Amino acid sequence: MKEIYVSPEDLKTGYRRKLLKVVAKNLGGGLVLDYSPRLIMKETKMMVRQAKVGIYVPDKKKGEAVSILKMLGFRIVGEKDALGIFEESIIVSMLIPLEEEEGVPIGIDLSGDHMVLLPLKRVLFFGLIDYRLPLYLANLESNVCWIDSKGLRKPLELGFEEVTKIPLNSMTRYALSELSRVIGALTIGERYASDILNAITNPEGEELFSDTEIPLVGRETQALKEVIESGLLTRGRERLSGRIYLSVQGFGTPAIVSAITAILLSFPGLVIINSDVWHQSILPIINRREGIIWVSRNPAMQLAREFEYKIYAEGDYYVLSRSMYFEGEMREVRKRFIPIWRLYSK
Fold this sequence. Notes:
eleven-stranded mixed β-sheet; 29% strand; alpha/beta; elongated; 346 residues; six-stranded antiparallel β-sheet
């Protein structure tokens, strides 16, 4: 492999840094990133790194690589002249694999030089939300479930089909055991998860928990009753698919969180949750699943620590934030952008 270094001045924008990764990948190579320990600028207190950046390619591709880089406006320099000072967040962003930077275009970077892409993995919208962005994302998918506890029925105007029940009998035993655990945590305690699972899987009777007694005490009795009598969970065997809308408005926390859990465990497509209601018992399920967009007005909610990607408004623009580990610490990579609907509004 041959190493080719570029001038630090050519790496000021995210677009240029990504372009370098694309060239390296297309030629069967990768990114060269040699950086120093953390430095702190005395004047600004900014955390920076000294670094040399370039690409490595197979020996026989070096000439082609140099030609392509020059054509794209990169200046080829020696290893010594490649040394520059970069904000630490830039170093972190360059370590993100190229395949993890793909996604749906949601706006244009404030510099105006490239589109900002959002991977539809685990995304949290929080703060003052403009629903045009999640609605835009919902419109791009053919298999998406929108769960709403706030009464926003706009998805129904976009061709979503409203459903009122979540069938459980098509779910795997593991999914049902996880749902039982969450219901227990919400009501009478996780130690009763096996009793709840037995009730859910009891083949006798059409209604959930019929002919089955679960130890209940005090106020927990009413809480579990709410989950059962909400009517959101059913023994049906059909599988939910397509573009569907489920309203959980007016229900209490146990019923809402149980419904969200059941959808996350059974629906195969993108799940959009428009709710400020959550419970810590669902966090393991969130961390094992991709294709979640959670919309909340509460920026302090614990969920903010559980989502890899976050979007929020900041002044006249939006921020796409990604959390990732770097040298044993959780770091944030931010992209400021103008949302896509503003680009085409008159």
